[in-house]
Design brief:
A hairpin with a 2-residue loop joins strand 1 and strand 2. Strands 1, 2, 3 and 4 form a four-stranded antiparallel beta sheet that branches. The chain has a two-stranded parallel ribbon with strand order 5-6. It contains ten helices and six strands. The chain is of the alpha+beta class.
Length: 236
């Protein structure tokens, strides 16, 4: 975001109606993305979150404190121009979905994976007629192309703003099914994050918690939960 002024130059950050949605203005002038695209978002609720980030800036602008703005910029500058390619990339996670790769030992981990992940695979089958089959081990095992096609349709049907958030939900969890469950309201985002970390949590219980790894995981958890909020606001 090198084009952002290093110092705050505005008094008021507000939301204004725009032809394609809602714009964020600084003293009446519309904000633009790094690629100079007008920052217009699909819902008023999302625009208000972005405006609040700009209003909260102090003497110097800190992009690290503006996650809604950053994700909206990505939606407009990166996702929108290549929507189909991004959707295909995310849909490809279904063919190697985290939920399908299981341990064979120890029994406690095997049971935890089954109890946490099997209901989500059942949900995907019931919701989209898309059954993904779990396998033991980490060697790649291809899934049913027809099932993958139905899951892919769910990805391509999302707007560029929703897809920007969906990117984080999929890539950070390693699971297309888990991300779909979050955006469809079938799984609470915090629970989804915990389910994506069953293996890591098991290892921590056996060997103890690494402080640096725990801090990184906590940061990623916050980003995952933020993506879920952004997605919900994108759809109104």
């Amino acid at each position: 975001m090198s084009e952002w002024a290093p110092k705050r130059f505005w008094q008021n950050a507000e939301v204004a109606d725009a032809e394609a949605g809602y714009a964020v203005t600084l003293d009446g002038r519309g904000v633009k993305t790094p690629a100079k695209t007008p920052l217009v978002v699909p819902t008023e609720a999302l625009a208000r979150e972005i405006a609040a980030e700009w209003a909260a800036q102090e003497e110097r602008v800190n992009p690290n404190t503006m996650p809604f703005t950053r994700m909206a910029n990505s939606a407009l500058d990166k996702v929108a121009p290549q929507h189909a390619a991004v959707a295909d990339m995310l849909a490809a996670y279904g063919d190697s979905d985290l939920l399908c790769y299981r341990a064979d030992t120890p029994e406690g981990l095997v049971n935890r994976q089954q109890q946490g992940w099997d209901p989500l695979l059942d949900w995907a089958e019931a919701s989209f007629d898309a059954r993904l089959m779990p396998v033991v081990g980490v060697m790649y095992h291809p899934q049913d192309p027809a099932a993958l096609a139905r899951l892919t349709a769910q990805v391509h049907g999302q707007s560029s703003f929703a897809l920007a958030a969906f990117h984080d939900l999929v890539s950070m969890s390693g699971s297309l099914v888990l991300a779909l469950a979050v955006i469809k309201g079938a799984c609470d985002p915090a629970e989804a994050w915990a389910l994506s970390r069953i293996d890591e949590t098991w290892q921590e219980e056996q060997w103890g918690v690494d402080e640096d790894a725990a801090k990184l995981a906590q940061r990623k958890r916050g980003e995952f939960l933020h993506a879920a909020v952004f997605h919900s606001l994108s759809d109104g």
